């Protein structure tokens, strides 16, 4: 099979089985040059397995992996121009920071002074020059994380693999590191493949995201695609918060379809799910794409009763009961202009769904 | 924990201290009765005068140490020259014990590594298998080893039958036999501490080394070995020290030529021919030697930049 040598990584029909258990079911995907690519999914979805297959730590049961056109799936890790930032950093405990960072360069045949000088430069890049002589155990979690990053970047890999590198950090540090990683990726121009189960992290940093579940690729696209046009129920539910409603198609006219909720209410939505009239599907409406009004503003508005308001800093989350106690969550952004659209519990209100916000999916 | 609290809190600290002292009492009694007193007894005996039918006369004397280090000629009237007989025996013992330690390390390390890298649920079985021979008394095992190694023993028979050799190999009563005996006696003391260290080793470090272009050999040398060093050193001490004082293997497998310290000391306390003060003096010299070696190891371990973890 001919390969596009401009892609950083091409995974072709890759399968991973452990005995009877299939961890990865026939995955094919291409990761572009100079891209921040994220493998996103819940634990056990196969994202780490795929990353370890690219790194060479797991055999590929079937299929091929190409790195800039070169077939690599049978090479051992030390023969692949790819480096990894491990989840728990895996820093060498008996070596100081500088020796950790220069290790890869030395292994590539650089002389000790040359390796050390280059390691020093990389440490400067991650702002750890003052800690070169320390042992990993003498560093904080965030510093260890940066050493791991410096160590993996020092040999100038063609692709950098990051296995949930931020999961051990506290929220504030994690947010800072997300931006730092993104900057580092732009500065170095190295292709990053990032594994995470945190959808916020994925949305913040990635050029493109592959959402995975149960060993299968669910959707591949940029952050906006994944969030606004989820391919299926799993993606809609996993990324962000949403209202998932089982619906039946009443009628369609090309682009739009009239969908009926279990309680009989109807709503117009996108009709690109390939469903026939009378078939059932899933509808996803993001809570922030709806507004509450005291009076009807649109003929399609439906009524509901506010049950509870939850104040969450940036927004107020309102839980509504529609007809037959069907639950709906609506989010109202907090603003200095006053929360005119937040109503006291018990109030009957009209729900206005933004045009195009109701998304229909077959699965 | 109680120590920390004791420093923080005066009144309560005293109570804790008292309790702690009482709790430590059994350990102290054991140490004093089983370690300190016997060693002191030996120290005292080494400075007494020998009684000809075994035992001692309570009369202070340097005779035992002089006998060990001084050669005063056939009639004992010449000035003191260095006596090489016993120093040579010591030197040979150190050499033998060191060789046995290296042999145990070469076989024991891969064995321990192998066991530690098996799936967690089968590791106890492997450890169990390693310890099975040690359910039989050391004397009986050493005698069996003699049986295995002798000229018409199973090893020679098998080699002759397979046509590899025409005449039986002389294995018994050689240094080689002593080596095999020591190695066989103390191998588990090498395997078990190394196994414990390798089992605790974080194998992601090996993955990281491999990811950073290190070959398997380099990974073993630069990453695995420094991390499991404490286990390796413990294993070496646990094999070297008993090998140094061993007497069963040299006696039963080495014959008269391959005398070691253990046999020398053992003979001084056996029957009527012995010389108790001389045996005690030899023991004290051996003890000093071992302590010096252990102290050197401990020093090296304590060096801050050498600690593996």
Plain-language structure description:
Chain A is 23% helix and 35% strand. With 363 residues, chain A is α+β, with helices and mostly antiparallel strands. A six-stranded mixed β-sheet of chain A has the order 6-7-8-3-9-10, sandwiched between helices. In chain A, strands 13-12-11-14-20 form a five-stranded antiparallel β-sheet. Chain A has a five-stranded antiparallel β-sheet with strand order 15-19-16-17-18, with no helix packed on it. Chain B has 13 helices and four strands. In chain B, the strands form two sheets. Chain B has a two-stranded antiparallel ribbon with strand order 1-2. The longest helix of chain B is centred in the first third of the chain and has 36 residues. Chain B is globular, with a radius of gyration of 25 Å. Chain B starts with a helix and ends in a 7-residue tail after the last helix. Classes of the chains: A alpha+beta (363), B mainly alpha (309). At the A-B interface, β6 and α2 of A face α9 and α10 of B.
Name the helicity range of chain B: over 70%
Percent helix of chain A, as a range, is 10-25%
Q: Identify the overall geometry of chain B.
A: globular
**What structural category arises from helix and sheet content of chain B?**
mainly alpha
The average pLDDT of chain B is 86
């Amino acid at each position: 099979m001919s390969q596009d040598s401009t892609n950083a990584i091409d995974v072709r029909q890759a399968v991973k089985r452990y005995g009877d258990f299939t961890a990865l079911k026939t995955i094919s995907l291409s990761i572009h040059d100079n891209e921040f690519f994220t493998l996103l999914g819940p634990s056990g979805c196969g994202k780490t397995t795929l990353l370890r297959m690219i790194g060479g730590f797991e055999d590929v049961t079937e299929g091929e992996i190409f790195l800039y056109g070169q077939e690599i799936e049978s090479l051992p890790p030390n023969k692949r121009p790819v480096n990894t930032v491990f989840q728990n950093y895996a820093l060498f405990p008996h070596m100081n920071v500088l020796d950790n960072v220069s290790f890869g360069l030395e292994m590539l045949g650089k002389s000790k002074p040359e390796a050390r000088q280059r390691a020093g430069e990389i440490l400067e890049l991650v702002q750890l020059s003052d800690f070169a002589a320390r042992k990993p155990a003498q560093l904080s979690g965030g510093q260890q994380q940066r050493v791991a990053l410096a160590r993996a970047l020092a040999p100038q890999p063609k692709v950098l693999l990051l296995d949930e590198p931020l999961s051990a950090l506290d929220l504030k540090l994690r947010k800072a590191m997300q931006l730092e990683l993104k900057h580092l990726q732009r500065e170095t121009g190295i292709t990053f493949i990032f594994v995470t189960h945190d959808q916020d992290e994925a949305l913040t940093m990635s050029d493109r995201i592959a959402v995975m579940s149960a060993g299968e690729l669910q959707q591949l696209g940029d952050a906006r695609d994944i969030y606004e046009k989820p391919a299926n129920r799993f993606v809609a539910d996993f990324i962000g918060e949403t209202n998932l409603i089982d619906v039946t198609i009443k009628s369609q006219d090309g682009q739009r379809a009239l969908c009926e909720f279990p309680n009989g209410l109807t709503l117009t939505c996108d009709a690109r799910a390939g469903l026939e009239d009378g078939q059932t599907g899933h509808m996803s409406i993001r809570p922030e794409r709806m507004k509450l009004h005291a009076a009807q503003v649109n003929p399609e508005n439906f009524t509901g009763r506010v049950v509870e308001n939850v104040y969450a800093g940036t927004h107020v989350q309102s839980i509504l009961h529609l007809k037959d106690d069907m639950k709906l969550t609506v989010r109202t952004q907090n603003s200095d202009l006053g929360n005119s659209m937040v109503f006291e519990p018990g109030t009957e209100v009209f729900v206005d769904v933004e045009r195009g916000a109701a998304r229909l999916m077959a699965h | 924990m109680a120590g920390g609290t004791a420093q923080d809190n005066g009144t309560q600290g005293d109570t804790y201290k008292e309790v702690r002292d009482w709790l430590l009492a059994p350990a102290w009694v054991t140490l004093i009765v089983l370690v300190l007193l016997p060693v002191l007894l030996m120290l005292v005996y080494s400075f007494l005068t020998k009684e000809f039918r075994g035992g001692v006369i309570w009369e202070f004397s340097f005779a035992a140490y002089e006998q060990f280090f001084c050669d005063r000629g056939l009639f004992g009237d010449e000035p003191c020259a260095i006596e090489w007989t016993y120093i040579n025996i010591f030197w040979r013992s150190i050499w033998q014990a060191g060789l046995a330690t290296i042999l145990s390390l070469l076989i024991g390390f891969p064995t321990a590594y192998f066991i530690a890298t098996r799936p967690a649920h089968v590791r106890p079985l492997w450890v169990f298998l390693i310890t099975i021979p040690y359910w039989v008394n050391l004397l009986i095992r050493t005698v069996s080893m003699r049986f295995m190694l002798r000229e018409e023993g199973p090893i020679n028979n098998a080699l002759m039958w397979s046509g590899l050799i025409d005449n039986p190999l002389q294995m018994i009563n050689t240094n080689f036999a002593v080596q095999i005996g020591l190695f066989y006696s103390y191998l588990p003391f090498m395997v078990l501490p190394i196994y414990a260290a390798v089992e605790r080793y974080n194998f992601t470090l090996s993955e990281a080394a491999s990811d950073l272009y290190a070959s398997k050999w380099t990974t073993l040398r630069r990453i695995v070995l420094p991390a499991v060093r404490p286990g390796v050193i413990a294993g070496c001490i646990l094999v070297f020290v008993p090998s140094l004082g061993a007497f069963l293997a040299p006696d039963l497998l080495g014959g008269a030529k391959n005398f070691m310290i253990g046999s020398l000391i053992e003979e001084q306390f056996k029957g009527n021919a012995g010389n108790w003060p001389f045996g005690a003096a030899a023991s004290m010299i051996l003890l000093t030697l071992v302590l010096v070696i252990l102290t050197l190891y401990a020093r090296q371990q304590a060096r801050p930049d050498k600690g593996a973890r």
